[in-house]
Write a structure and sequence with these properties.
By secondary structure, the protein is an alpha/beta fold. The protein is 48% helix and 13% strand. Keywords: Chromosome.
Length: 502
């Protein structure tokens, strides 16, 4: 939900179709949005509320309604103030009349005390008579008001709906809550620690703090799964030139309609684009994409850039980096933390490592697809960090499922358990959404169960490689393996719940 506002003077309007600069309710973000993506608020309100059940959307509705209430309150206050002002004017006139009458009475009494024929007495009476017969200054001002020229009185403001600068819009449910327009002053903050290692803090390239001016580089994207589809959609919305390829070509059709170009092979996409991103399912798919027939490696030549956003192990990503660089290419790993909804909303967290110059070149792309990005140093670091993040998430999901089933078998209300958790320190969007999935029996994939199990397996292997125990992840992994055996692989990770009830 958004309202049209005036853009800052130094922000140029995107080329192409007509668009408006809008402020999003709920997030306080701003973006250029095409005219055809906007709908009037009131006529489409009920329809969109039925379609969108998420908390984020409801918060936006609440923000709009609160804004409208405040605006209405101001109008009423203004009307009330105008009425009070009118009453004050009438009261002032009445006091003026009373004062004039009192003056006349005093003058008459005084006149009886002075000698007849004195000019002073006559002058007083004449003065009073003149004042009584003329209009007060306030009355004259009212008669000279704009009413005589056909204009509405000042206290009668036009209705808000007729004001061309006051429009509320409902955006499509996949619309990115886009970026604020403050300029980015610095992309990276580098801190030298006492150990001599370099840690790169979160880049100021977030959807909340950055302004997206799309790069003029040609962007390629390989892989249109749950994550890739949302990423490409946001790249296009923010004005990037994108060429897409997917193993199942039909998935490209929607993005072609949105303005993307079609690449026939990964090699063709890489050879025709400046920066090519890829997001596929696992290490094998990542290697096949680069090393297979008509693969990425065949399109790499000096200066070409390849960014692998897949969640894989450090050994795989290091091998891919070596072969890309050996052909004169530039390489960056950039796996993403999030799910399908966060991908659609452009709110992913991006973990990058490798070519830092390429990381900076990807700035506008990362802004379009994520809320923040981290640069973690040399190739392999992002893969390791991503596996650790997903290990924690996967283990937590298994624990949630275990707790809900234990509540059920001991005669406790699962809904009450969720309500208690939501009021405590564990409260989070993740907890609430996954528990709701279980309570409603809705396991439509937002993050495939088979992929979280793959990440747990890789995280355990990472622990083995450095002789570090991972007993919690190992236990969770066994539960996910059980769920896979029950044909839950293509359901959401929350379907791990079913491993406890069979």
């Amino acid at each position: 939900m958004a309202a049209i506002v005036n853009p800052p003077k130094d922000l140029k309007k995107p080329r192409g179709k007509k668009c408006f600069f809008v402020k999003f309710f709920g997030t306080e973000d701003h973006a250029w949005i095409k005219v055809e993506q906007l709908k009037p608020y009131h006529p489409h309100k009920e329809e969109m509320i039925k379609i969108n059940k998420g908390k984020r959307f409801q918060q936006a509705v609440d923000a709009v309604e609160e804004f409208l209430r405040k605006t209405k309150g101001k109008d009423q206050a203004s009307s009330h103030n105008s009425t009070e002002e009118k009453n004050r004017r009438n009261s002032s006139e009445e006091r003026g009349k009373q004062s004039a009458g009192e003056e006349k009475r005093k003058a008459s009494l005084s006149e009886g005390k002075v000698k007849k024929g004195t000019g002073e007495g006559k002058k007083r009476v004449s003065s009073v008579s003149s004042e009584r017969g003329s209009k007060s200054p306030l009355k004259r001002a009212q008669d000279q008001s704009p009413r005589k020229r056909g204009r509405p009185p000042k206290d009668e403001k036009p209705a808000k709906d007729s004001d061309p600068h006051f429009h509320h819009f409902l955006l499509s449910q996949t619309e990115k809550p886009a970026v604020c327009y403050q300029a980015i002053t610095k992309k990276l903050k580098v801190c030298e620690e006492e150990t001599g290692s370099t840690s790169i803090q979160a880049a100021d390239s977030t959807a909340v703090n950055g302004s997206i001016t799309p790069t003029d580089k040609k962007i390629g994207f390989l892989g249109l799964g749950l994550m890739g589809s949302g990423i490409v959609s946001n790249l296009l919305k923010m004005g990037h030139t994108v060429t897409v390829w997917n193993r199942t070509a039909e998935k490209c059709d929607l993005f072609i309609q949105e303005g993307a170009r079609l690449g026939r092979t990964p090699a063709e996409v890489v050879s025709t684009c400046d920066i090519t991103f890829a997001c596929v399912s696992d290490p094998k798919a990542a290697k096949d994409l680069v090393l297979g027939p008509s693969g990425v490696l065949q399109g790499i030549r000096p200066g070409k850039c390849y960014v692998d956003m897949s969640t894989v192990d450090a050994d795989t990503v290091t091998e891919l980096a070596q072969v890309i660089v050996s052909r004169g290419g530039r390489f960056l790993e950039a796996p993403v933390s999030g799910n399908q909804q966060l991908s659609n909303d452009g709110m992913l967290v991006i973990l990058a490592a490798g070519d830092r110059g390429l990381y900076e070149d990807c700035s506008s792309c990362f802004q379009a697809m994520g809320k923040t990005s981290f640069f973690l140093g040399e190739v392999g670091n992002a893969a390791k960090m991503m596996l650790i993040v997903n290990m924690v998430q996967g283990s937590f999901m298994a624990t949630i499922a275990e707790g809900l089933t234990l509540a059920q078998v001991t005669g406790q209300s699962q809904q009450t358990l969720l309500d208690i958790l939501n009021q405590g320190q564990l409260a989070s969007i993740f907890l609430d959404q996954k528990c709701q999935n279980i309570l409603q029996g809705n396991f439509k994939p937002d993050f495939y169960l088979k992929y979280i199990q793959k990440d747990l397996r890789l995280a355990i292997a990472l622990g083995d490689s450095v002789n570090h125990p991972t007993p919690m992840a190992a236990a969770a992994n066994e539960v996910y393996k059980r769920a896979k055996a029950l044909d839950q692989s293509d359901n959401d990770m929350s379907a791990v719940y079913r491993a406890y009830i069979h």
